[in-house]
Amino acid sequence: MATRCMVGVASCIALISVFGGYIFPLSSPSKAAEKFHPSERMRAWMYSEYGEPKDVLQLRTVPRPLAGPKEVIVKVKATSVNAGDVHLITGKPYIIRLMAGLSPSGVVGYDLAGVVFEIGENVTELAVGDGVYGQAREFGGIGDSGFAEFAVVPVENLVRKPDSISFEEAASVPVAGATAFEALHNDLNVTALDKRVLINGASGGVGTYSVQIAKALGAQHVTAVCSGPKADISRNLGADAVIDYNKRDFTVLEQGEDLYDAIADLVTNHPLSHIKRILTDKGRFVSMSKKPMGNWFGIFAHMFNILYAHTTGPQSFGMCMSLPKRENLLALNELVEKGKVRPVIDRKYSFLEIPDALEYLQEGHASGKVVVSMTGKGK
Prior knowledge:
There is one protein chain. By secondary structure, the protein is α/β, with parallel strands linked by helices. Helices cover 27% and strands 27% of the residues. The longest helix is centred in the middle third of the chain and has 14 residues, at 174-187. The radius of gyration is 20 Å and the shape is globular.
């Protein structure tokens, strides 16, 4: 296996929190925007204290950022909301407050799609007017957010938007799509040799991408686990079988069912001992859990359980450590261009409705991605 799916002690220390499939690195904040236009202003959603999005997010008018070397200014056309945004705004689990700061940075919103408005020095990959999408700078400051009219973005975080998808669809790709790609391609190393792959939590933002990417990588049979009403979504995305979790425990195989070669878990609702019994001897498992597992030490217990499972048997257990990687976004963009992966949008909100979009995401019922259009009406 090219890249073995595993969690070591060093990884557990350096990459400490998994939420919505996204891992926030225990590291210094990324370099924030440093230059601002002396007179031009823009609107941006910001917060200065932790709390529920509707209580603490404020729409403010702030200076428009200027592009530095190897940076571009993107005029944002669309963004999308992620579980990671909610965790940063609420500061829960509390370990996030140690990583992001006891006083919030004030900006949030990683996904973005738009048009290149300005380029900085040494930028040759893109030109003004190009349609692009990608991920805003992590732990940045004013100007480093997709929840704003303009954003300054490192050029390496962007790719050109295919003509075949809208800005709203493009904005749904970066975090959720790249997380799914990291898990299925890099961690589980899914290939055409895999006879059976299972996605637990297949109908959400990361889940809908996971089903498609597993099929695009050649998996012979993909099983999607979701609620009954969402079964058709998974089938339309290429799932060969769908298990309704309200009717059946997927960790109990029915007569004649084969073991799974790989399992991607976005829910963490079954003991790993039960997962072990449905994996082949060389089976692989990766957690992309979207459950917060408590506000204090649940994540550490989850890491320990995975490390224990990994070291007490022949199977491979790990956590998806999804950090921004240009190669992942480029590979994902190629799949989108070829029509092998398509964004699934559950609801669309307007820019003024971003707190509502986050609130809906928190309810946990989205089928696909929740996106925000900078123009037009939502829903």
